[in-house]
Task: inverse folding
C-alpha cells in the first residue's frame, strides 16, 4: 500500500503541483481514508520527500540505461532529454521551481543528491565525446561540467512553466554542445536539431 500511495501522490504532485495537492485529495483519488495515508507518512512533507526520491530513481535508472547503450556522446544527451520530456509531459509547472518556492528544505536535499549524479553523468559524457572526436580534446572537463550544471539547474529553479523549461534546456544543450564540439560534433548536433520531436 505504501508504494501505491507514493506512486499516486507522485503522479498527482507532478500533474497538479506539490503545493495544491492535499492528503485529502490523494485519499479521495485512491478511495482510501486519510488515516491510511497517515499510517505510512506522518505528514505531507515526508510524502513529498519519498515521491521526489521515486522520481529521482526513475530518472537516474533511465539515464543509466541510456548511458549503457551504444549512443555517441551527442546522441546520448538528446536521448536523455527525451526521458525528461516523457516523465514531465503532464506537468505544467517545473517541479524543481515548485520545490524551491514551497518546500525549500526538500529542494535543497534533492539538489545536493542530484549534484553528484549529474556531475558524474556530465563528466562521462564529455570524456566519451572527446574520445569519439565529437568534443575538442583541449576542453577543461571539470569547468564545462560546472558550467552546464549551473546553467541547467538555474533554468529549472527559476522558470515556472515546464514547457518553457524544456525549451530553454534545449537552447542550453545546443549552447553547451557548440561551445565544446569539433566540426564533426557540430554536424552531429545539427542533425539532431533538425528532428521536429526534440
Result:
Amino acid at each position: 500500500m505504501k508504494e501505491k500511495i507514493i506512486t499516486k501522490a507522485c503522479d498527482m504532485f507532478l500533474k497538479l503541483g506539490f503545493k495544491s495537492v492535499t492528503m485529502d485529495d490523494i485519499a479521495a483519488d485512491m478511495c482510501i481514508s486519510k488515516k491510511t495515508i497517515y499510517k505510512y507518512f506522518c505528514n505531507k512533507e515526508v510524502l513529498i520527500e519519498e515521491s521526489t526520491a521515486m522520481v529521482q530513481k526513475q530518472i537516474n535508472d533511465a539515464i543509466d540505461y541510456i548511458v549503457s547503450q551504444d549512443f555517441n556522446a551527442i546522441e546520448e544527451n538528446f536521448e536523455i532529454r527525451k526521458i525528461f520530456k516523457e516523465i514531465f509531459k503532464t506537468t505544467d509547472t517545473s517541479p524543481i521551481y515548485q520545490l524551491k518556492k514551497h518546500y525549500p528544505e526538500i529542494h535543497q536535499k534533492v539538489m545536493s543528491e542530484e549534484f553528484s549524479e549529474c556531475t558524474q553523468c556530465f563528466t562521462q559524457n564529455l570524456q566519451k565525446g572527446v574520445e569519439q572526436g565529437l568534443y575538442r580534446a583541449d576542453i577543461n572537463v571539470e569547468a564545462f561540467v560546472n558550467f552546464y550544471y549551473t546553467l541547467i539547474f538555474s533554468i529549472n529553479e527559476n522558470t515556472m512553466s515546464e514547457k518553457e523549461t524544456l525549451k530553454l534546456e534545449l537552447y542550453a544543450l545546443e549552447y553547451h554542445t557548440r561551445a565544446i564540439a569539433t566540426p564533426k560534433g557540430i554536424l552531429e548536433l545539427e542533425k539532431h536539431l533538425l528532428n521536429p520531436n526534440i
The CA atoms of residues 178 and 186 lie 6 Å apart.
